[in-house]
């Protein structure tokens, strides 16, 4: 009887959380030119925002040119519309950006500041993560809300 009650309450709680949008992935969304978003990441400034798609991934892009370093943190679904150098492999971990040889191919532009070939930075690395909320920071130790709530709720429910 307890097993049936356990599964029924789990399904009920999961359906309630889906309606509230709690099951979506939360990612930090900022650029290192913003205060607190650079290499010593300050999570107190950015609490994270929910990604638009339910199966999204958090992304951290590190672009370097000499001593200059730009870090972009966002959701993969947001970056798909504005970036063409997304690696084909979206699994957990870091990998170099893909080269798009067709980018700027039909444009004859002599203004190098426009960066139509997207080759200003010497190295661009994409880091993907999707197993925990707000995982695109330098180090994240904040547990997921559901990972804490469901076991506590089940322990309370089974003790009745």
Automatic annotation (TrEMBL):
Its main location: membrane. It is a lipid-anchor; GPI-anchor. One of its GO terms (cellular component) is side of membrane. This is Uncharacterized protein LOC117644909. It is found in: Membrane. GO terms for biological process: regulation of synaptic transmission, cholinergic; sleep. InterPro entries: QVR-like, Sleep_regulator. CDD domains: TFP_LU_ECD_Crim (cd23591). It comes from the Eukaryota. Keywords: Glycoprotein, GPI-anchor, Lipoprotein, Membrane, Signal, Transmembrane, Transmembrane helix. It comes from Thrips palmi (Melon thrips). Residues 1-19 form the signal peptide. Coiled coil: none annotated.
């Amino acid at each position: 009887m307890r097993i049936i009650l356990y599964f029924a309450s789990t399904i009920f709680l999961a359906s309630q959380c889906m309606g509230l949008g709690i099951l979506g992935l939360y990612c930090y969304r900022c650029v290192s030119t913003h205060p607190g978003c650079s290499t010593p990441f300050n999570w107190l400034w950015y609490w994270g925002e929910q990604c638009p798609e339910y199966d999204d991934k958090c992304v951290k892009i590190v672009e370097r040119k000499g001593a200059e370093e730009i870090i972009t943190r966002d959701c993969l679904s947001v970056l798909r519309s504005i970036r063409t150098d997304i690696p084909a492999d979206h699994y957990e971990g870091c990998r170099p950006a893909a080269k798009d040889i067709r980018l700027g191919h039909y444009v004859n532009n002599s203004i190098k500041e426009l960066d139509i070939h997207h080759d200003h930075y010497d190295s661009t690395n994409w880091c993907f993560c999707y197993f925990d909320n707000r995982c695109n920071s330098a180090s994240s130790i904040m547990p997921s809300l559901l990972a804490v709530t469901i076991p506590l709720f089940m322990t309370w429910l089974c003790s009745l």
